[in-house]
Amino acid sequence: MSIKALKEQRFDIFKRLEELRNLANSEDHKWSSEDENNWEACNGDYDRLSRSIEVTERTEELEAQLAERSEKRNLFRAELPESVRDAAPSREERDDALQGWARAQMGMDLEERHQLACRKCGVNPKKGHYETQLYRGNYDTMRREMRAQGVDTASGGGDLVPEGFVYELERALLAYGGMRQVSSTIRTDSGNDLPWPTVNDTGNVGAILAENTQTGAQDVTFGSTTLGAYKYTSKLVLVSEELMQDSAFNLTSELGSLLGERIARILNTHFTTGTGSGQPSGIVSGSISGKTAASATAITAGEIIDLFHSVDPMYRDSASSVWMCNDASIAAIRKLVDSDGQFLWQAGMQAGIPDRLYGRAVVVNQDVADIAAGTFPIIFGDFSLYKIRDVAGVRLYRMNERYRDFDQTGFVIFSRHDGVLLNAGTNPVKYLTMAAS
Asked: pTM above 0.70?
C-alpha cells in the first residue's frame, strides 16, 4: 500500500477520534465502556498505521539506493578498460577496499576484487588504521536528501576511505534521536576551542534627530559562547572470522550503522540533557521555562498554547521552530482539544510532511523527560540555534589479537563533538515545567 493511502487511512481514524472526543465532551451523551473500547482501538490503529508509514518510507528509500547501485557497472573484472581504470573509484570499490584492509589485518588472503579495489583507491591494506573525514558540504542538503557524498582524502597518508562507510555512519548519526534532524551542524578540521560571538541589542532603539544635531552613541555589547571538542568512542564491535570470510557480508554497511548508532545514542543524550560540565551543553540546559503546568502528572491544551506564545515571535515564526518531546508525551498531547473542541494535533497527510502541533512540526526525541513531577517534557523554539560541532577526523581501528581466542576481530571508532544553544539572552527555546509533587 502506498504512503498516500496509509496516510489517508490514518486521517480517517483521526477523524473518528475527533468524533469520539466530541461525544466525551457532550452533555447529552454518557460515555460507555463501548466508547472507551472504540477510543482505545482507534488509538491503536493510529499508532499501527504511523509505524507502517515510517517503515514504508524507509523501505522506499532503501529501494532507491539499491536501484542506484544496480545501475553502476561492474568494475572488478581482471581486464579493465583504460577509461574505467582511470575513472574515480566507485562506492563498491571503496567498500571492497575497506573489506580488503580488514581481511589483510587478520592475515587473510585478499580476493582479486579486493586487490583491484585497494590499488584503484590507493589503499595500503597493511596500514594499521583508517582515518576519514565526515561529510564536508552543506549538511542541510544531506539532511533533506540523505544521499551518499564523496569524502576528502585522509590527512594520515591520503587513503580513499569507503564512501559507503561514511554514508552509513552519517545516516546513523542523523537518524538517531532527533537533535541532529533540527539543529545546525558545523564541521571543523581541528578541535581547538571555537568561540561563537553573540549579541543582544533588543533593548536599544533608534531616536528622532533634530536638524543640524549630532547623533548620539549607543554601544553594542557582545558576548561569546565557546564550542569545544569532547572525545567519544563507539566501544568495540566484534566480527567473527566467518563473517569476515563471507563475501556476502557487507562490512561497510554493518560497521557504519553499528558504530554510528553507538556514537549517536550518547551524543543525542548529551545534546538533549547534557550539563555542559565535562560534556556538551544540551538543549534543556541552554533554554528556560516558558510555562509551568498546574499538575505534576498531566498537561492541558491551554498550557501548550501558553508555552507556544512564551517564545518571542521572531523565533516562534521561524521556519526552524519545532516541538520536541518523547513518544509517551505525544500520546498525551494527541488527546488534547482547544476551547472549540478541535484537536491540537494535526496529522500529516502527505509523504514527507510530519504531524503538527499548533501548526509546527513535532520531533520525537526519547531523551526528553516523561511527564512527571518537576520534569521538562515538552520543548519548543528555534532549534537551528542549537549548534552541533563535529571535528571532522574519524578514526577506525581494528583490534586483532585481543579477541583471537574467540576467533573474532574488534572494530572501534573515535570522534570528537560538542554542542551548545546560542542564547544571547532572548531565549529562542523554552520548555514546559511540570509542577512539583
From this structure: no
Which cell is 407 given? 576467533
**Domain annotation covers residue 314:** yes
Angle of CA points 309, 315, 316, to nearest 5° = 35
Q: Which residues pair with 398 in a beta bridge?
A: 411
Q: What are 291's strand-pairing partners? A: 432
252 belongs to a structural domain: yes
Grid coordinates representing 281 are: 551543553
User: How many Å apart are CA 16 and CA 12, to the nearest integer?
Assistant: 6
**Residue carrying the nine cell digits 570499490:** 93
Q: How many CB atoms lie within 10 A of CB 250?
A: 15
Planar angle of CA 162, 271, 307, nearest 5 degrees: 135
Beta strands per DSSP E along 138-274: 184-188, 194-199, 222-227, 230-233, 237-240
- H helix runs in 287-425, sequence order: 301-310, 313-316, 327-333
The C-alpha atoms of residue 320 and residue 307 are separated, in whole angstroms, by 17
Q: Report yes or no on 74 lying in a domain.
A: no
Tell me how far apart the alpha carbons of residues 98 and 435 are, in angstroms, rounded to a whole number: 54
Q: In tens digits, what is the pLDDT along the chain, a chain of 437 residues?
A: 678 888 888 888 888 888 888 888 787 888 888 888 888 888 888 888 887 777 677 667 656 655 554 444 333 333 444 544 455 567 677 777 777 777 777 677 788 888 887 777 767 777 766 555 565 544 555 444 443 332 333 332 223 334 456 666 776 777 677 898 889 888 888 888 888 877 776 677 788 888 878 787 777 667 778 899 999 999 888 888 777 666 556 676 777 778 888 888 999 999 999 999 999 999 999 999 999 999 999 999 999 999 999 999 999 998 889 999 999 999 999 888 877 788 888 877 665 667 889 889 999 999 999 999 999 999 999 999 999 999 877 778 877 777 778 888 788 888 899 999 998 888 999 999 999 97
Residue 322 in contact with residue 360, Cβ under 8 Å?
yes
Instruction: Return all residues near 144 (Cβ < 8 A) that are at least 6 apart.
Output: none
> What pairs with residue 304 in β-bridges?
none
Count up the domains in the chain and report the number: 1
CB atoms within 10 A of CB 90: 21
Q: Which domain holds residue 388?
A: 105-198+227-326+365-437
Would you say residue 342 lies in a domain? no
Q: CA–CA separation, 254 vs 409, rounded Å?
A: 14
